[in-house]
Amino acid sequence: MRLSTVILPVRRWSEGGREMWRRAEELGFHAAYTYDHLSWRVPFRDGPWFGAVPTLTAAAAATSRLRLGTMVTSPNFRHPVPLAKELITLDDISDGRVTLGIGAGGSGFDATALGRHPWTRRERADRFAEFVPLLDRLLTEDEVTVEGTYYAAHEARGLPGCVQRPRLPFTVAATGPRGLRLAARHGQSWLTTGDRAANETGTPADSLAALARQTEALEKACADTGRAPHTLGRTLLTGFTPDRPLESLDAFVDFAGRLATLGFDELVLHWPLPGTRFEADTSVFERVATEAPAQLG
Description:
Low-confidence stretches: none
Number of strands: 10
Oligomer: single chain
Order of helices and strands: EHEHEHEHHEEEHEHHEHEH
Structural class: alpha/beta
């Protein structure tokens, strides 16, 4: 079981931002991610919020071992061609420490920031189904020309390519059949936050049962695409299920153990932020980071 963290980009680099990324490396986290949004939900909507790729570039310079990534990038305001160039550059600067978390996006602030109406769920899924394979090609081929329904590339160069070969890994966020098949075809890991209904009104037992159903659907998608399920990692972004894993070290170990039985091999914890849903005792958070891995085996 790998433990990672997600650091929301809400602090100026000179006012605590740099220190959080360095501390994440000191605590031994496998990876530190940041949200790739233009802005996010209340209470973050009207406060400071910085860009993901520049933040990760700075984090790459401030650390040496920690993996870095987005959680998650979406087509809501990204195009595969310039995104691929930014990712190749970031992978180079970090010496091959980047993971791309990628998802279809939602109907929140990112969906309207460019002055358009938000896409429907079907429209987001259609774009995502084209976005992921094209980005895969742009990160693995020297030159790509393609004319799709939503995205096009004309002699788009990918030189010199990623440091990681054949490209940096994708962690694909998905819960529906189409997205799960994309994860099976293109992902090195699959990402979920759990089931929305169970998260909002269910118990921890309800949430675990819903996650079990999601993993069963993932295994079916792997079978449909000829992918061996054990070759696809399973990542849970915590903080949205009804569990309270950061109440204590023992609570976290119990929580992680239940998820391990479903095949999850990476848990991502939000860096504590006072006054938000991600508020937590920093001392417990740090004990989890440093002591839980040994207990989880």
